[in-house]
Fold this protein.
Amino acid sequence: MNIVVLAGGLSPERQVSLVSGTGICRALRSRGHRAALVDMYLGIPDYRGREAEVFTAPDGLCGEVSIQTQAPDLEAVRRSRADQSPRLFGPGVLEACAAADVVFLGLHGACGEDGRVQAAFDLLGIPYTGSGYLASGMAMNKAVAKQMMERVGVLTPPWRELVYEEKDIPRLVGELPVPCAVKVINGGSSLGVTLPDTRRELTAALEDTLRYGGHVIVEKKLFGRDIAVGVLGDEYLPPVEIIPQCGTYFDYTAKYQAGASQEICPARVTERQRRIMGEATLRLHRALGLTAYSRADFMLDDDGRPWCLEINTLPGMTPASLLPKEAAAAGMDFPGLCQTILELSLAARRAGQ
């Protein structure tokens, strides 16, 4: 098949996406597909062939990419674009996607997981991997996802949705409980997440989060073990436990820097805990109408109760990511995982999902 692996984009998770996309592209090529990596925002302005010829480009247009300890400077990315267009689709991107048999979405964050890209592809008749536009948008919005958890009986920490301005911060600091977690409504990879323990820290957290737009959820801060559970098709995968090595919080650095965290898969949990988390993940996956794959994140408290924090529709596919580790524990290598996601997604598109 001719496949565009769409990655990069213009979200704080840009570098994570490029690393995911590079691995996906090479895995698909190892399975005999003609795959090419395309940066959604920067496009392929330097490629001199026709769009259909990108699929036979050397190494699928993949380069050497890595994830730095800090999120990328998106203003610098904007300045580096050749045509300086405000469009999120860069030069040649839509043409290459239209020439493909399917687009494998390697995007992460608001630029790719919030349903806008999926809606555009639906309108253009371009098949893609993962969930549809409505399910993606619902899952990406942490408040909507929380409402769905409560509706289908998935245990989640007490929370509150806020839209605020700088003038509201003194009042909110007096109202909100601490310790708590402040999370940008559509953030990912732990970007836009702070965990204040005091009112002074809460003030700083609310001030800092304004740079993401001032739309957040604030939830009770839990203490315990970080567990993730993936879904592939209509089955849940073995859970993985994440143990940060350089702190107590599984943040952006701990997620993507080598040696910054330890992952244990299958997680050392009881059979009952494994079943509760797996069934909760599947229940939420189905209730949101998700397709092919997803990953839910839990906190297992000191009493052994699993609390669902969020669900991801395009979970990371980097060498350090959790879903590939879960698939490996279930006996599936990375190229096989990519192939399965491809097949499940195409079946869903043919079914009108």
